[in-house]
Each structure stands twice: as structure tokens, then as C-alpha cells.
Write a structure and sequence with these properties.
By secondary structure, the protein is an alpha+beta fold. It has one domain (9-301). The chain is 34% helix and 16% strand. The chain has 12 helices and 10 strands. It has helices at residues 9-17, 20-24, 52-61, 64-69, 158-171, 184-190, 199-210, 217-226, 249-255, 258-267, 276-282, 295-301, and strands spanning 76-81, 89-94, 102-110, 124-133, 176-179, 195-196, 229-231, 234-236, 243-246, 273-274. A hairpin with a 7-residue loop joins strand 2 (89-94) and strand 3 (102-110). Helix 7 (199-210) packs parallel to helix 10 (258-267). The protein is globular and about 60 Å long.
Length: 308
């Protein structure tokens, strides 16, 4: 039986003690002389709950800004883009880099809009359009090679960031959070709190994650991106199916349907493997760190002669 998600006890305690007035406090003219916290005549609050200053207050209370600064990111600023009041974007920037450190875009939806069925058609949800966490001051190496879609290495804070977004969803009255992971490694990060709504998609993800021959996991993400994984003769690529994190028992029950459980059981019987010929032809060596290439990677992928 699927149950509502839980966050770390430390984060939950801070959430419960949070000063609600501080979350909605709007910028004074002195603090925001250019009106960057809003557009003319429009609200300065995201989901009628969070001001820009309120978001910064929350990130400081949870200790997240302190942990980001400890990674050598310099002075950080929290921005709230309300250009689209129905889909606010939260951005954390560093004074050292042009690229953002954190960026999250979310919008309010209903269960009906996501096709979740009659029982939860009227349920309010937050949909995570995109989440970016990166350290523009770091370079990739073979301990942490680039993943599909990455411009810079990550921050090793995805677990905390996801939990803070879940708490934000709960604060604004959402009964769950939904998303469509753009890659296997994104789904891996979300999987501690989110489930695929489609049982077959959940089974496929679990089988891929649990197959010891599909290692290392960063290479599996590339193989799925490049169409170099097979199940029997079938070519397998990544599909951004709908995932949901229930924050309420009603949503949890809806996810735990008989049809979904049946599809989950059937899907677990499938096996997957690398298509090494495909992977060796298509692997993006030009995006990888320079030599020396680890021996295990050389043996598996057989880099082109003359080096990479």
C-alpha cells in the first residue's frame, strides 16, 4: 500500500516551527526599489504564500543557503520570478558565476489536468516543471563524469532540495507533487519520494536500477539517452513518464491501484542489458573528462585509437 511521503525529522521540525508571517512578508520599497519582486499590479507572492524574502527566510531556516555557501559558491541571492503568476520560478544565484546555482519552476495543477482519474480529479497538486542544481565553479572528472543534460557538476544536495519542495507543496495546500523526470538519473534522485503512476514504468525503472550488469549508473543514464539498452531484441530509451509524491492519504490510495500493481508485477519479469556495439559507436567522448580514462571504462567502451 502506497503511503504519503515523509521528510527528514530535522526538516519537519523546522517546517512546523516556521514563522508563517515571515514567509509572506513582502519587500519594502527600500529593499526592492526597482520592483524586481513583482510586475506592475501583480502579486508579489507565489501561490499566495511565499514572498521573495519569505523564500530566503525559509532557505536560511533550513540551513540550505549555509550548506550551499560551504561549497565555495560565494555570496548567494534568492530571486522569485513571477512573470507567470501560475508558474513561479525560484532562482538562487552566486555573485561569482553567471549561471544559476539552483532553479526550480513549479505550477499549480489538479489531478484532472494530469489524468489521474475520477477519485483525485479535484485534488490540488504542484507540478515541478524543472529543477536545476549545479556548481558552476566545479569541473567534471571521472569520479563524477557529466550526465545527459548537465552543463556543470551537481551539488550533492538533490535529496534536501526535493524535500524542501515537498514541504513547500504541503505549505501551499497541495496534496501531492508531480513531475516528469527528463532522464534516468533524474528519476533516480526523485525515486526516494516519488513513484511512477504507471505500474509498467515503475517496474521498468526498478528493473533498470537493480540490474547489476547495467553499471556504472552514470553510463546507464547515457545508454538510455543514446538508445543503447535492450530488453530482448527491443531497443529501450528513456521515457519521461509521470511520477507523483503523495502528501495526502487520498492521493496515496489513488496511486496504489489494482491495475497499477498488476502492471508492476508483469514488468518486473523483464530483463535489460547494454547494447555495447551501439554504446561504443555513439558514446559522446567529446563531452567526457580528459585522460587518464579509468581502465574499467576503457575495457567496456573501447575508446577510439589516438585517445579521447
Amino acid at each position: 500500500m502506497t503511503r504519503p511521503v515523509r521528510v527528514q525529522p530535522r526538516l519537519w521540525r523546522i517546517y512546523r516551527r516556521m514563522n508563517l508571517a515571515a514567509l509572506t512578508e513582502e519587500e519594502s520599497e527600500d529593499r526592492d526599489p526597482l520592483g524586481l519582486g513583482s510586475l506592475e499590479g501583480r502579486t508579489r507572492l507565489a501561490w499566495e504564500t511565499y514572498s521573495r524574502g519569505g523564500l530566503e527566510h525559509a532557505l536560511r531556516a533550513y540551513g540550505t543557503l549555509e550548506r550551499l555557501q560551504a561549497r565555495g559558491l560565494g555570496k548567494l541571492s534568492v530571486n522569485l520570478d513571477l512573470t507567470d503568476p501560475y508558474a513561479p520560478t525560484i532562482v538562487v544565484r552566486s555573485d561569482l558565476f553567471t549561471a544559476p546555482v539552483l532553479e526550480a519552476s513549479l505550477r499549480q495543477v489538479s489531478g484532472r489536468q494530469l489524468g489521474l482519474g475520477r477519485l483525485v480529479s479535484d485534488v490540488p497538486l504542484l507540478f515541478l516543471e524543472s529543477l536545476l542544481l549545479q556548481n558552476p565553479g566545479k569541473q567534471f572528472d571521472w569520479h563524477r563524469p557529466p550526465l545527459p543534460g548537465q552543463q556543470f557538476p551537481g551539488l550533492s544536495l538533490s535529496g534536501e532540495a526535493i524535500q524542501l519542495l515537498l514541504l513547500m507543496a504541503k505549505r501551499v495546500g497541495a496534496e501531492g507533487m508531480a513531475l516528469r523526470p527528463s532522464s534516468f538519473h533524474a528519476a533516480w534522485a526523485y525515486a526516494r519520494h516519488f513513484l511512477f503512476v504507471d505500474g509498467a514504468a515503475q517496474a521498468r525503472f526498478e528493473a533498470l536500477r537493480g540490474e547489476p550488469r547495467l553499471r556504472p549508473l552514470w553510463l546507464l543514464s547515457w545508454a538510455l539517452e543514446l538508445g543503447c539498452v535492450r530488453s530482448g531484441v527491443e531497443r529501450v530509451t528513456w521515457t519521461p513518464d509521470l511520477m507523483i509524491a503523495p502528501l495526502d492519504a487520498r492521493v496515496a490510495r489513488a496511486v496504489s491501484s489494482v491495475v497499477r500493481r498488476s502492471a508492476l508485477r508483469r514488468g518486473r519479469r523483464r530483463t535489460y542489458r547494454f547494447d555495447l556495439g551501439c554504446l561504443r559507436r555513439r558514446f559522446p567522448w567529446e563531452r567526457m573528462p580528459g585522460p587518464p580514462v579509468p581502465r574499467t571504462v576503457q575495457e567496456l567502451l573501447q575508446p577510439p585509437r589516438g585517445g579521447v
